[in-house]
Specification:
- The chain is of the alpha/beta class.
- It has helices spanning about 5-15, 15-35, 55-65, 115-125, 170-180, 205-210, 235-240, 260-265, 270-280, 285-290, 295-335, 345-365, 380-400, 400-415, 425-440, 440-470, 470-505, 510-525, 525-530, 540-585, 590-595, 600-629, and strands at about 45-50, 80-85, 95-100, 105-110, 140-145, 150-155, 185-195, 220-225, 250-255.
- Helix 2 (about 15-35) runs antiparallel to helix 22 (about 600-629), helix 13 (about 380-400) runs antiparallel to helix 20 (about 540-585) and helix 16 (about 440-470) packs parallel to helix 20 (about 540-585).
- The longest helix is centred in the C-terminal third of the chain and has 50 residues, at about 540-585.
- It folds into two domains: about 10-325, P-loop containing nucleotide triphosphate hydrolases (Rossmann fold); about 345-595, Four Helix Bundle (Hemerythrin (Met), subunit A), CATH 1.20.120.
- Bound molecules: guanosine-5'-diphosphate and magnesium ion (MG).
Length: about 625
C-alpha cells in the first residue's frame, strides 16, 4: 500500500515565511523529544478523541497515511502516540515501542504493512487479550517523505455500554484515560463527531468542554458527511460554521473511506481525490471547501499551524517547568552523593567527609545558623517560640491581681487558723501559698521540655536522613545513638527541672532584691485596694504585697532557669554527644561496611544523572530557540 499524505505537498508549497516559522518549531519539539525530555515533561501534542466508530482511526489514517487497526468494538485499547516526521530521503522508517514492567520493548518495522499487526500485538502485551484497556502507551515513530510533521495521540473511543467480555466499568476507565491526556495544557484535542448524528449528544465534546471550558485547545472534526440524511445538510454546514455549538477554534469537516471503500481496496491517495470531488460536487458543502474548512489536506495544514502556535504559546511554561525539574533533579542527585570510592583508604576519607558534613549541619542548628529552604523556620526560632509560651504561662501567674491573692490569704486563714487571735497572719501561711503557686508551674515547664524535645528530634531526624539516606548501614548506625542520647538528655533535663521545683520549696530571695521588689509593688497604685481598702485587714493586705513580690521574683527566676536547662540538655549536650559518637565511628567499624550502598541507590543515581543531562541539553535547546525566535 502506498502511504501517501497530502499534507507534504501542502507544507512544502507554503510560502517561505511559513516554512521558516514551522520547521524550527517542529524541530524544536522533535529535538526535545529525541533527547527523551518527554519522560520528564509533557510536550505539545494533538490527541484524537471521540465516541466509538465516530471515525477517529479513519481520520488519523488519512492524515498520516498509516494504516491502523480497524474493526468494530474497542479497537484502540492503549493510547497510541503516532510521531510522524517528514524527511527528504526516500526511505521509510518505522519503530514501535512500549514499556512493560519497566522493560523497554522496541520493534523496527520494515514497511507500513507491518504496522497493524505490531500495534495489535503490543496492545495484547499491555492490555491483554479481549477488550480491556490499558493506560500504558504505545509509541509509533514513522519517518518518511510521505507524512506531515505531526504528533498525534489516538485514544480508545468512548463506549457507552459494556458488551461481551468487557469490564463493567469500561466507560469510566476509558473516560479517565482520555481525561489524563486532554486535560494537559500541552494537548490540543481533536474531537471527532460523525456529521450524521446530533452533535449535542456527543460524549467526547462534553468531555473536552469539561477540561477546556474556554475551548482554547479544542478543535471539532465532523466525519461521514456522505452519510448525512437528506435535508440535514444545512445543520451540518451551520455546525461547521460554528453556529450550533461554538468552539474557540471552530470546526472542520472531512470525508474518509467508508466500509465499502475499504472492501473495494480504495487507496488513500484515491480516497483523497474522492473526498475533494465529494465536497466540490455537493452544493451544500462546496462553500465549506472554499472557506478552507473541509478535506483532509486542509486539516493537516491547519493542524500543523495550530501545533506551531500552540508550541509558541506553551514555550515559556515549558521552559519554566524544565527549570524546576532541573533544580529538583540536581537536588536529588546531591542528596544521593557521588558514590563511594573503591579504594579502602579513600573509603575512610569518604566516611570522614560524610560525617564531617553531618556534624557541621548539626553544629549550624546548635548555633542557629542553619541554611533555610524556602519557608522553613530555624530550629532555634521554633524553640524560642516555646520559651515565649513558657514566659506567658509565668506571666499569668505573676500578674495575678493582689485582690485574688488577698482572697486566697483570707480563705487560707479562715480554714487553717490555729489558736492565734485574728490578725496574726504568719510566715507559714506565706510559705504555703507560695509553694502552692510554684508547684502549679511544674507541669507547664515539663510540657515545654517535651515540646522542645520534639522540635529538635524532628530536625535531627531530617538531617540524618538527608545525609545518610543512601547508606542504610550508616543510617542505622547513626540512628541508634540519636534515640539513646535523646532519651538520656531528656531524662537529665527532666531531673533538673524536678530538682528546681523541689528547691523552689525553699522560699528564698536576696534581701536587697526582695525589698526592692516589695517597694515597687507597694508604690503601684492598686485598683482593688482602693475600692475595698477600708474593709481589708491590714495584715492580709500586707501579706498580699509580699506574695505578689515574691511570685514576681520566682517567675523571673524560672523564666530564665527552665529554658537554660532545656537548651543545655536538649540542644547543646545532645548535639555534642551525637557529634562525638559520629566521630568515634570513624576509628571503629570497617568503613566499607558502613558505606555499603543499597542496591537501588546506584541505579537511582544513574537515572538521575541521565535525567540531569537530558534536562540540561533540553534547556539549552529551548533557550537557543527562544533567543533566535
Ligand atoms: P473509530 O472507532 O472512531 O476509530 O472509527 P473508525 O475510523 O474505525 O470508523 C468507523 C467506521 O466508519 C468505519 O467503517 C469507517 O470506514 C467508517 N467511516 C469513517 N469515516 C467515514 C466517512 O467519512 N464516510 C463514511 N461513509 N464512512 C466513514
Ligand atoms: Mg479506532
Amino acid at each position: 500500500m502506498s502511504h501517501c499524505s497530502s499534507s507534504k505537498g501542502k507544507i512544502s508549497g507554503l510560502n517561505q515565511h511559513y516554512e521558516e516559522k514551522v520547521r524550527p518549531c517542529i524541530d524544536l519539539v522533535d529535538s526535545l523529544r529525541s533527547l527523551g525530555v518527554e519522560k520528564d515533561l509533557n510536550l505539545p501534542a494533538i490527541a484524537v478523541i471521540g465516541d466509538q466508530s465516530s471515525g477517529k482511526s479513519s481520520v488519523l489514517e488519512a492524515l498520516s497515511g498509516v494504516a491502523l487497526p480497524r474493526g468494530t468494538g474497542i479497537v484502540t485499547r492503549c493510547p497510541l502516540v503516532l510521531k510522524l516526521k517528514s524527511t527528504k530521503s526516500d526511505s521509510w522508517q518505522g519503530v514501535l515501542s512500549y514499556t512493560k514492567k519497566k522493560e523497554n520493548i522496541t520493534k523496527k518495522l520494515k514497511d507500513s504493512s507491518e504496522i497493524e499487526n505490531a500495534v495489535l500485538n503490543a496492545q495484547i502485551a499491555l492490555a491483554g487479550k479481549g477488550e480491556g484497556i490499558s493506560h500504558e502507551m504505545i509509541t509509533l515513530e514513522i519517518e518518511s517523505s510521505d507524512v506531515p510533521d505531526l504528533t498525534l495521540i489516538d485514544l480508545p473511543g468512548i463506549a457507552r455500554v459494556a458488551t461481551g467480555n468487557q469490564p463493567i466499568d469500561i466507560e469510566k476507565q476509558i473516560k479517565s484515560l482520555i481525561e489524563t491526556y486532554i486535560k494537559r495544557q500541552e494537548t490540543i484535542s481533536l474531537v471527532v463527531v460523525p456529521a450524521n448524528i446530533d452533535i449535542a449528544t456527543t460524549e467526547a465534546l462534553q468531555m473536552a468542554f469539561k477540561v477546556d471550558s474556554s475551548g482554547q485547545r479544542t478543535l471539532g472534526i465532523l466525519t461521514k458527511p456522505d452519510l448525512v440524511d437528506k435535508g440535514m445538510e444545512e445543520t451540518v454546514v451551520r455546525t461547521v460554521n460554528n453556529q450550533v455549538i461554538p468552539l474557540n477554534k471552530g470546526y472542520m469537516i472531512v470525508k474518509c473511506r467508508g466500509q465499502q471503500d475499504i472492501n473495494e481496496n480504495l487507496g488513500l491517495v484515491k480516497a483523497l481525490e474522492k473526498e475533494r470531488q465529494f465536497f466540490n460536487e455537493n452544493s451544500h458543502y462546496r462553500s465549506l471547501l472554499e472557506d478552507g474548512k473541509a478535506t483532509i489536506p486542509l486539516l493537516a495544514e491547519r493542524l500543523t499551524k495550530e501545533l506551531v502556535q500552540h508550541i509558541m504559546k506553551t514555550l515559556p511554561q515549558l521552559q519554566k517547568q524544565l527549570e524546576m525539574k532541573l533544580e529538583k533533579t540536581s537536588e536529588d542527585l546531591k542528596a544521593l552523593g557521588d558514590g563511594v570510592p573503591l579504594d579502602e583508604n579513600e573509603k575512610t576519607n569518604f566516611l570522614i567527609m560524610k560525617i564531617r558534613q553531618f556534624n557541621d549541619a548539626l553544629e549550624e542548628v546548635k548555633r542557629a545558623e542553619e541554611d533555610l529552604k524556602n519557608s522553613d523556620t530555624r530550629v532555634f526560632s521554633k524553640i524560642r517560640w516555646e520559651f515565649g509560651k513558657w514566659k506567658l504561662a509565668l506571666d499569668s501567674k505573676s500578674v495575678k491581681t493582689e485582690e485574688i491573692l488577698r482572697d486566697e490569704v483570707e480563705e487560707y486563714v479562715r480554714t487553717r487558723r490555729g489558736k492565734e487571735l485574728p490578725g496574726f497572719v504568719n510566715y507559714k501561711t506565706f510559705e504555703n501559698i507560695v509553694r502552692q503557686h510554684v508547684e502549679e508551674l511544674e507541669e507547664p515547664a515539663l510540657k515545654m521540655l517535651r515540646d522542645v524535645k520534639d522540635i529538635v528530634h524532628t530536625c535531627v531526624d531530617r538531617i540524618v536522613n538527608s545525609h545518610f539516606n543512601a547508606f542504610s548501614h550508616l543510617l542505622r548506625a547513626a540512628k541508634n545513638p540519636i534515640e539513646d542520647f535523646h532519651d538520656e538528655q531528656f531524662q537529665q533535663a527532666e531531673e533538673k527541672i524536678h530538682s528546681q521545683f523541689k528547691m523552689e520549696k525553699i522560699v528564698y530571695s536576696q534581701d536587697c532584691l526582695y525589698s526592692h521588689q516589695l517597694n515597687i509593688v507597694k508604690q503601684k497604685p492598686s485598683t482593688c485596694f482602693g475600692l475595698k481598702a477600708s474593709s481589708v485587714n491590714a495584715d492580709v493586705r500586707e501579706m498580699a504585697y509580699h506574695l505578689t513580690s515574691y511570685l514576681k521574683i520566682t517567675c523571673d527566676r524560672l523564666a530564665n532557669q527552665i529554658p537554660l536547662i532545656v537548651q543545655y540538655h536538649i540542644l547543646d549536650q545532645y548535639v555534642s554527644q551525637l557529634q562525638n559518637a559520629m566521630l568515634s565511628m570513624i576509628g571503629g567499624d570497617n568503613p566499607g561496611m558502613l558505606l555499603r550502598e543499597d542496591s537501588g541507590v546506584a541505579s537511582k543515581r544513574k537515572e538521575l544523572k541521565e535525567r540531569l543531562e537530558r534536562l540540561k541539553k533540553g534547556g539549552k535547546v529551548l533557550s537557543k530557540f527562544v533567543h533566535s525566535a
